[in-house]
């Protein structure tokens, strides 16, 4: 009887190990979010070109869990802050942790990953978009990092839902977690089916170039758009901006008629936590294209955009935090040619925003 039990346990263990090996092999070889390939490039100090199918939040996990050097300065923001790269901080090590459609939950989650490793930066540049204070922003991508968000929210004393996580949800971080992830396995299978139906699939490759005809995820976390986007004429940009504000609603600004008290409390608590732990904070506001800003400033549907800027200024003043930039391009000195589209400023515009800091550093 004992021999039969041992044989059963042996077979069960063997099949389980084989299953886990198969899941890991598929996840690693298909890698739909390009976690392992692109991640290796950035962790080795090289850029990753052509990263188009890209789970940015899983990527944050990978980078923070596996990097050997803690950056002195980081950016937490959305895609509107991704053009900020290491050249803005010549005297400091740097990483840009911005994610597309970034919201406060993302910021808390990403900082939690740094905090739990005791790898906090000396300075954080908080990119604050108007939709961060809109409870109807409709952003859900942050839920990839829900476990980390809840951990930081608890540290801030914020009310969160009761935890009900499985063992595997709390198992590990970085590459190991995703390698054996069942959810990532399902993504890998779906991606494998898609790839089989394509004669050619564009994929990432490691490069030392900074500007190419494909997007580049830089080794410092910044994103450089493809060259074609940077060549758009003012006329093209006006049309793109006009199409952008024709969206109903404008990106993440729907039903934004009041500053949400819960979200504003989270932001204020988070900024306070950063200061208490010795992290210097600077608020960064990036402008919209002039054509977009005119609509946002004049339409009653979007009056809270300007109100959000004023609110951010008030919180920053209360906490003794510097604010640079504005949602208004005229206040930043940015012309219509200094945008990629309706909401993403070019590097030249961002450098104008950061110029007051350079003056202070050289004073």
Structure description:
This protein has a 5-stranded parallel sheet, sandwiched between helices. A 4-stranded antiparallel sheet has the order 5-1-6-7, covered by helices on one side. It is built from 14 helices and 9 strands. α1 (2-30) crosses α7, α2 crosses α3 and α4 crosses α5 (146-155). Helix content is 47%, strand content 9%. It is α/β, with parallel strands linked by helices. The chain has a domain at 69-167 and 224-362: SGNH hydrolase (Rossmann fold, 3-Layer(aba) Sandwich).
List the helices and strands and how they pair.
Blueprint: H1 2-30, H2 35-43, E1 47-49, H3 56-66, E2 73-76, E3 94-96, H4 104-116, E4 123-127, H5 146-155, H6 174-179, H7 182-196, E5 205-207, E6 216-217, E7 223-224, H8 227-230, H9 234-245, H10 261-276, E8 280-285, H11 290-298, H12 303-319, E9 322-325, H13 329-332, H14 347-362
Parallel strand pairs: 2-3, 2-4, 4-8, 8-9
Antiparallel strand pairs: 1-5, 1-6, 6-7
Based on the model shown, name its key terms:
single chain; about 375 residues; alpha/beta; Rossmann fold; four-stranded antiparallel β-sheet; 14 helices; 9 strands; about 10% strand
Quick overview:
By secondary structure, the chain is α/β, with parallel strands linked by helices. It has helices spanning 2-30, 35-43, 56-66, 104-116, 146-155, 174-179, 182-196, 227-230, 234-245, 261-276, 290-298, 303-319, 329-332, 347-362; strands at 47-49, 73-76, 94-96, 123-127, 205-207, 216-217, 223-224, 280-285, 322-325. Strands 3-2-4-8-9 form a 5-stranded parallel β-sheet, sandwiched between helices. Strands 5-1-6-7 form a 4-stranded antiparallel β-sheet, covered by helices on one side.
């Amino acid at each position: 009887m004992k021999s039969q039990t041992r044989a059963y346990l042996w077979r069960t263990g063997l099949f389980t190990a084989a299953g886990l090996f198969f899941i890991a092999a598929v996840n690693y070889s298909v890698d739909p979010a390009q976690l392992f390939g692109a991640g290796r490039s950035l962790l080795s100090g090289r850029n990753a070109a052509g990263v188009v199918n890209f789970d940015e939040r899983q990527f944050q996990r990978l980078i923070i869990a596996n990097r050997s050097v803690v950056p002195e300065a980081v950016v937490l923001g959305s895609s509107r802050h991704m053009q900020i790269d290491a050249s803005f901080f010549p005297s400091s090590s740097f990483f840009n942790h911005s994610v597309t459609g970034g919201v406060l939950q993302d910021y808390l989650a990403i900082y939690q990953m740094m905090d739990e490793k005791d790898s906090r930066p000396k300075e954080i540049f908080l990119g604050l978009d108007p939709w961060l204070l809109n409870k109807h922003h409709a952003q859900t991508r942050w839920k990839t990092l829900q476990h980390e968000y809840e951990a930081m929210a608890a540290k801030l004393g914020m009310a969160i839902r009761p935890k009900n996580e499985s063992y595997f949800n709390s198992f590990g971080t970085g590459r190991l977690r995703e390698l054996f992830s069942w959810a990532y396995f399902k993504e890998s299978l779906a991606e494998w089916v898609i790839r089989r139906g394509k004669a050619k699939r564009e994929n990432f490759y490691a490069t030392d170039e900074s500007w190419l005809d494909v997007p580049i995820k830089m080794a410092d976390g910044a994103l450089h758009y493809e060259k074609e986007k940077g060549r758009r004429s003012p006329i093209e940009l006006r049309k793109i901006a006009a199409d952008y504000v024709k969206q109903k609603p404008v990106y993440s600004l729907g039903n934004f008629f009041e500053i949400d008290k819960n979200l504003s409390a989270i932001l204020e608590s988070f900024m306070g936590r950063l200061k208490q732990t010795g992290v210097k904070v600077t608020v960064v506001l990036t402008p919209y294209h002039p054509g977009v800003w005119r609509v946002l400033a004049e339409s009653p549907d979007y009056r809270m955009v300007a109100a959000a800027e004023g609110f951010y200024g008030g919180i920053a003043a209360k906490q003794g935090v510097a604010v640079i930039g504005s949602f208004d391009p005229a206040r930043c000195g940015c012309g219509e040619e200094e945008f990629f589209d309706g909401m993403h400023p070019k590097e030249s515009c961002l450098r104008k925003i950061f110029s007051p800091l350079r003056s202070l550093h050289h004073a």
